């Protein structure tokens, strides 16, 4: 009996499915879209648009750190020039041991010089790509 | 694919392109209106419900994460808005419960259906759907017309799986009953 019922239910289920093949949706009135868009437009004009800054706080610190590192590297590379300039000013070298400073700076500068230039270019290239990718991602999500 | 297009449109809307929302309305307005009407069973109110639902969807667009299809998310808003509208309305006594359906044993349900023209079938189906209980009609349309799974209907209504199944079963039975009654009337008018 149960099987028979299930069988009948399946037939009716199929019949309803067939019936729904001819089903047509109710046509929404034209006013629906117009009036909804009016509401949406009013809401849009009333709401202030807040843009998120492209560089957020975390990124800002990274950027400042990176900039400081870049400055210090450029200083190390050109330290000999600065020391020469210092000497020309006849600064009192009793307080600052310029020779040892020069030696230290010189050795660090030398170690940087020994690194093949391809490494610098690669690092700069990678960071440039990361930066560009992040920039465009930000633009896409504004 | 359809959902991908919807997601593209949603991104545009979030970027401030209001015109993209008009495209979403174009795409879903008839389905939304049909579903709203299946619950409120009044064209004027169905339009109000659909408008409200689209407006709510626009305002809540930031909450749409794309986990489910946009259509399912929109149907959920339509469902909730329509149910709220119904609650606000004075409870009307349905004459469905008191109606005695005469059954003719001579002709089967399928025989009667086959006797009708396609156009008449459409009319009869709409009439039968309008007589179903609100939530049942909504679920029946999603299940049979949109061919959504029980899980998708669960998401669209917020009802539990077992509840959806019960309502679907009850709706199917009621629909069949209404169809039978309407078919008998229709066939009687031919004789």
Provide a short characterization of the protein structure.
The complex is a heterodimer of chains A (142) and B (191). With 142 residues, chain A is mostly helical.
Provide keyphrases for this structure.
heterodimer; A: 142 residues; mainly alpha; 6 helices; 77% helix; disordered N terminus; B: 191 residues; Rna Polymerase Sigma Factor, Chain: A; Arc Repressor Mutant, subunit A; membrane (chain A); transmembrane (chain A); transmembrane helix (chain A); DUF5056 domain-containing protein (chain A)
Give a written overview of the molecule.
The complex is a heterodimer of chains A (142) and B (191). With 142 residues, chain A is mostly helical. Chain A has a domain at 57-141. Chain A contains six helices and no strands. With 191 residues, chain B is mostly helical. Chain B has nine helices and no strands. Chain A binds chain B through residues 11-13, 15-17, 19-20, 22-29, 31-33, 35-37, 39-41, 43-44, 49, 142, and chain B through 15-16, 18, 21-22, 25-26, 29-34, 37, 43, 46-47, 50-51, 54-55, 58-59, 109-110, 113, 118, 121-122, 125-126, 144-145, 172, 175-176, 179. Chain B: This is RNA polymerase sigma factor. Chain B: It comes from Carboxylicivirga marina. Chain B: Belongs to the sigma-70 factor family. ECF subfamily.
């Amino acid at each position: 009996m149960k099987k028979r019922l299930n069988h009948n239910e399946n037939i009716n289920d199929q019949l309803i499915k067939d019936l729904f093949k001819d089903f047509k949706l109710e046509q929404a009135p034209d006013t629906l879209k117009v009036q909804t868009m009016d509401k949406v437009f009013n809401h849009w004009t009333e709401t202030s648009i807040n843009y998120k800054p492209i560089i957020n706080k975390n990124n800002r610190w990274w950027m400042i750190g990176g900039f400081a590192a870049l400055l210090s590297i450029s200083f190390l590379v050109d330290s000999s020039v600065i020391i020469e300039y210092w000497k020309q000013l006849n600064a009192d070298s009793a307080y600052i041991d310029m020779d040892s400073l020069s030696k230290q700076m010189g050795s660090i500068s030398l170690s940087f010089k020994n690194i093949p230039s391809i490494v610098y270019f690669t690092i700069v290239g990678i960071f440039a790509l990361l930066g560009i990718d992040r920039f465009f991602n930000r633009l896409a999500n504004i | 694919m359809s959902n991908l297009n919807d997601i593209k449109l949603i991104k545009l809307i979030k970027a401030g392109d209001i015109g993209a929302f008009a495209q979403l309305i174009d795409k879903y307005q008839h389905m939304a209106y049909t579903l709203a009407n299946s619950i409120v069973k009044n064209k004027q109110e169905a339009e109000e419900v659909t408008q409200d639902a689209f407006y709510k969807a626009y305002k809540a667009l930031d909450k749409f994460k794309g986990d489910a299809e946009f259509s399912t998310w929109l149907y959920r808003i339509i469902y909730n808005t329509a149910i709220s509208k119904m609650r606000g309305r004075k409870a009307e006594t349905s004459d469905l419960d008191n109606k005695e359906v005469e059954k003719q044993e001579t002709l089967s349900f399928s025989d009667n259906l086959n006797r009708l023209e396609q156009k008449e079938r459409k009319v009869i189906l709409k009439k039968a759907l309008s007589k179903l209980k609100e939530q049942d009609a909504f679920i029946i349309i999603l299940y049979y017309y949109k061919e959504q799974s029980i899980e998708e209907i669960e998401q669209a209504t917020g009802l539990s799986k077992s509840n959806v199944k019960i309502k679907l079963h009850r709706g199917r039975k009621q629909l069949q009953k209404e169809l039978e009654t309407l078919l008998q009337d229709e066939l009687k008018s031919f004789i």
